[in-house]
């Protein structure tokens, strides 16, 4: 039987009121009272013994948390990327994380099945954005913008099978740069390739190569090889897998799964296994069948012009004309490109080297904005996307291999004391440093031990410590200590901020 002394006060009050009722109501009152007591006891027992959650605590498949150490590395990568975008005159833009489903439909070819659809919450069918390109095109059409150079850093979502060890996730960050507007041929395209080179060189990832092709050349090859036009996009999607699969497997997919005639697949194979520089462009001009295809000829002429500009920009040796590059997304209309590393990321001893695929990609999409415009007005566009997650994976592997440590804060100065009852003086001092714009910390204790404070500075990589005690207070000075050398000097209180700023500027 439960102990009545543990019952809440309200339950006792209800019980007492029932006992004081007239006799003829005693019977029903007793029943009611018993019910209330039982209910109160049950409720009390349920609150004191809550059930533990019956689930595994984890992040959803294909997502992850980023630790403070990882966020430092990530921010450094993003700083390199965004500073380059700004250096080239781009302005920033943001769009919603989800779009109307109809806005995303039929823009990605076979990859449309990877779009995350959301539950109808108010009469609109919505989907999480698959990339940052389609929302940008929608923005241009909706706001009737004819010219814009923009960059966008944001998350996108794809419902695919994640490969975490290769930096592939269902939720990931993209960094896009795009030039929208009618300009002379290949000038914006050349700048996009220059930006890719600057970013990949700045991140010091090792040797890389940018593969270029043109969707008009790809379509021209399909046409002269006998691919039905209705199968162009499907076959294009298969060719796009040549960076992950051998030609034999891609050929099998085209023939067995997509119904292409074997002899047609073989003719395609003669082309898509070719790669080289501007000399290959000239060689394709000599291909009588390909050069007679109007679209392919336009693509070859643009690529020839592009290589001229790339030579002037000093990056032609980093670019290869690769006929296997197809870029399976439906919206590409002209030049396409993709950057790959020429070496695998550093692995721990005994592990097999892993390929992370492309680390940047993009191309021209002249028809996408017109798909959203009610009158079909076209705004030519070209852009690129930096593969932040894959780059982040490479940098992480390299840091692990070389045992590099990461500072998780930017604290420059620590306020310490060797004595008790000096919290007030520490607070006055730290406020003075904060007001001067100096990044400063102290321990949240009334009477911390000096050794504990100094150990904290060493562990966190804080370069300077200011120490205040009774002697310093009496003499009107502050001790300034270098954590690395452990040297201390006495500085007049009024000169402290200037001395700290001088030291920080010199470091």
From TrEMBL:
Q: Pfam families from the entry?
A: HGTP_anticodon, tRNA-synt_His
CDD domains linked: HisRS-like_core (cd00773), HisRS_anticodon (cd00859)
Enumerate the catalysed reactions. tRNA(His) + L-histidine + ATP = L-histidyl-tRNA(His) + AMP + diphosphate + H(+)
Keywords from the named record: Aminoacyl-tRNA synthetase, ATP-binding, Ligase, Nucleotide-binding, Protein biosynthesis
EC code:
6.1.1.21
Which InterPro entries would you find in this protein's record? aa-tRNA-synth_II (IPR006195), aa-tRNA-synth_II/BPL/LPL (IPR045864), Anticodon-bd (IPR004154), Anticodon-bd_dom_sf (IPR036621), His-tRNA-ligase (IPR015807), HisRS-like_core (IPR041715), HisRS/HisZ (IPR004516), HisRS_anticodon (IPR033656)
Q: Does the keyword Nucleotide-binding apply?
A: yes
Is RNA-binding found in the keyword set? no
Kindly report, in one word, the top-level EC class recorded for this enzyme: ligase
Start and end residues of each Aminoacyl-transfer RNA synthetases class-II family profile domain? 62-418
- Give the source's domain of life in one word: Eukaryota
* GO molecular function annotation: ligase activity
The record, for Gene3D superfamilies, names: Anticodon-binding domain (3.40.50.800), Bira Bifunctional Protein, Domain 2 (3.30.930.10)
Q: So what family is this one in?
A: Belongs to the class-II aminoacyl-tRNA synthetase family.
Protein name (record): histidine--tRNA ligase
Instruction: Give the encoding gene's name.
Output: HARS2
